């Protein structure tokens, strides 16, 4: 059975970013045509393939490919420098095709706000080996601050029940009954 790899896409006025999120694609067969792309690869004994017909033409000779151990990035040069309303010719939902929000720029945003990635640079690879933030340093002593652990004692004299405070003001007991005086 043939599977579809996850394919991410984003665009600029002049180019399309197409990322095939599948590891071990060094031997993949990628047939890039002016109006379509065909991809085939075997990873972990599984066949992966897809075919896409582009919304408009690209220039395969001016397009670039970067293959890493984790993914394949294609930077496709559009034949005509204009924004496309979608990647594919047909307006259908393909479950394996997703928007690449890391690279996405809206048509009305300037190129200065989100510059195009330089050719051959994959910043996700550089960041892939880095660990998480590891929490916010310098806040270790907050647990010892009075009132922070469950707010006990933070209300100045004890955090009581608001109903108890109201009962004291009205002269009623904790059951809401009027307090009886000994007179």
Account of the 3D structure:
This protein is mainly beta and 183 residues long. The protein is 8% helix and 30% strand. It has two helices and nine strands. The protein has helices at 123-128, 162-170, and strands at 2-3, 6-11, 15-21, 29-32, 36-43, 46-53, 58-67, 72-78, 97-99. Strands 7-8-3-2-9 form a five-stranded mixed beta sheet, with no helix packed on it. It has a four-stranded mixed beta sheet with strand order 1-6-5-4, with no helix packed on it. β7 and β8 form a beta hairpin. It is globular and about 45 Å long.
- Secondary-structure element order, N to C: EEEEEEEEEHH
Question: Oligomeric state of the chains?
Answer: single chain
The residue-averaged pLDDT reads 76
- The N- and C-terminal alpha carbons lie at a distance of 92 Å
Strand order, largest beta sheet: 7-8-3-2-9
- Assign an overall shape: globular
**Count of discrete alpha- or pi-helical segments spanning 4 or more residues:** 2
Number of strands: 9
Portion of residues in beta strands equals 25-35%
Poorly predicted segments: 123-133, 157-170
Radius of gyration, taken over Cα atoms and rounded to an integer in Å: 30 Å
Structural class: mainly beta
How much helix, percentage-wise, in residues?
A: under 10%
The major sheet is characterized as: 5 strands, mixed
């Amino acid at each position: 059975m043939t599977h579809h790899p996850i394919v991410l896409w984003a665009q600029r006025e002049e180019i399309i970013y197409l990322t095939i999120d599948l590891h071990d694609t060094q031997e993949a067969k990628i047939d890039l045509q002016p109006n379509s792309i065909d991809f085939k690869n075997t990873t972990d004994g599984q066949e992966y393939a897809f075919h896409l017909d582009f919304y408009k033409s690209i220039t395969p000779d001016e397009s670039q490919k970067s293959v890493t151990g984790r993914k394949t990035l294609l930077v496709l040069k559009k034949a005509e420098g204009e924004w496309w309303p979608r990647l594919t010719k047909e307006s259908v939902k393909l479950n394996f095709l997703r928007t690449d929000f890391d690279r996405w720029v809206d048509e009305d945003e300037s190129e200065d706000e989100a510059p195009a990635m330089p050719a051959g640079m994959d910043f996700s690879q550089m960041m892939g080996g880095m660990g998480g933030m590891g929490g916010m340093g310098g806040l270790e002593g907050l647990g010892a601050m009075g009132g922070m652990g469950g707010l006990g004692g933070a209300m100045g004299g004890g955090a009581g029940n608001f109903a108890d405070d109201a009962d004291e003001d009205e002269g009623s007991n904790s059951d809401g009954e009027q307090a009886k005086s000994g007179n």
